[in-house]
Task: structure prediction
Amino acid sequence: MAFTTTAAYYEALANPSGRLEREGPFLKSILERAPGPRVLDLACGTGVHTLFFAQEGAMVTGADISAEMVAFASEHRPHRAIQYIVGDMRSLPDGTWDLIICLGNSLSLLEKDTDLHAVFRSAAGHLAPEGLLVTQTLNYARPAAREPRHRVERGEFEGAEVTAVKSLVPHGERTLLSLAFFADDSGAIVSLSETAILRNWTPDELRNAAETAGLTVDAVYGGYDGSAFDGEKSSDVLLVAQKPA
Result:
């Protein structure tokens, strides 16, 4: 196959089975707490979580700002209970949902405070009474995240070997991200690179955005194991907020 889309590179390195083995029990418990089966997966990417919730019995809308990601998810992770759409997390599509998720550190791609508040405000406006919003971002305060770090990841997609070199360099309240992808596609090496500036949102900033939008913060976890958030040790910030009845 030809690696002509970014989605193919991300899919090769997603490790969906390993990821869902780690995250699945937490996400299933969240779905069981939601007042109904309607789920919106914001920044759904290649549809890993979208399909997971559909297989758990939910009616799911997967939305991503990238038409390429949406096309890839539609082709590779279809399900009768899924609708994939192109959409911006700051302005949700028409509809009402019982559970809205935004995982994969996607909120860190937002540059401004106004953008973050727009996401929470829009989510609050589209949640059913007692509906839940779950967001996941990296914990940028832990010591390891305050130092430059580099990681090499390897995977495979449709017979092609993929290598990614990921660099994260802290810079004030932001982190500079660079990704270099290399794929060995039947002996032909192809590559693609991406850069992004990640906003280092803090738990307090996320909590403030939720509460300003009229949501009640139910819990802030430090990982998918449900552990309490620890600013020095936790790798993630998992915020769970609820819309009042």
User: Anything to note?
Assistant: DSSP finds six helices and eleven strands in the chain.
